[in-house]
Amino acid sequence: QVQLVESGGGLVQAGGSLRLSCAASGRSSGSYVMSWFRQAPGKEREFVAGISWSGRSTLYADSVKGRFTISRDNAKNTVYLQLNSLKPEDTGVYSCAARLRIYPVVNDSEYDYWGQGTQVTVSS
């Protein structure tokens, strides 16, 4: 089992920045992909960004490319999502997810563990 706890969400004005963190605990062996998803009110959950265990492979949704950056610190069992140039349409609950595979994928059904999420609200 892997437990995931997100933090760092909040209210920010358009154009601002936030840094989300996701701390993992529980399973200490094996390589796993970490990804971020988000869900806006009335919309389906969507993939935002993912990173391989080594950190050498990343994947981003087109809507966030060039604005968001995913990274990880395996010594701290933590993955980060830096959100820059935020837009009101970035508003939603951001959740991290773990996948016991090598590479990130966009399909949320391919992920094994989920955090509870952290709210990001971007005002115009």
Specify the structural class.
Answer: mainly beta
Compute the gyration radius: what is it?
A: 13 Å
Binned strand content: over 45%
Figure out the total of helices.
0
Major beta sheet summary: 7 strands, mixed
Q: Give the integer mean of the pLDDT values.
A: 94
Instruction: Identify low-pLDDT runs.
Output: none
What separation lies between the terminal Cα atoms? Answer: 40 Å
- Tally of DSSP β-strands: 11
What is the overall shape?
A: globular
Query: How do the SSEs run, as a string of H and E?
Result: EEEEEEEEEEE
Query: Which bin fits the share of residues in helices?
Result: under 10%
Brief summary:
By secondary structure, the chain is mainly beta. The chain is built from no helices and eleven strands.
Q: Mind explaining what this structure looks like?
A:
It is a single chain. The protein is mostly beta strands and 124 residues long. 0% of the residues lie in helices and 51% in strands. The chain has no helices and eleven strands. The protein has strands at residues 2-7, 10-13, 18-26, 33-39, 46-51, 58-60, 68-73, 78-83, 92-99, 113-114, 118-123. Strands 2, 4, 5, 6, 9, 10 and 11 form a seven-stranded mixed sheet that branches. It has a four-stranded antiparallel sheet with strand order 1-3-8-7, with no helix packed on it. A hairpin with a 6-residue loop joins strand 4 (33-39) and strand 5 (46-51). It is globular, with a radius of gyration of 13 Å.
Annotation keywords:
single chain; 124 residues; mainly beta
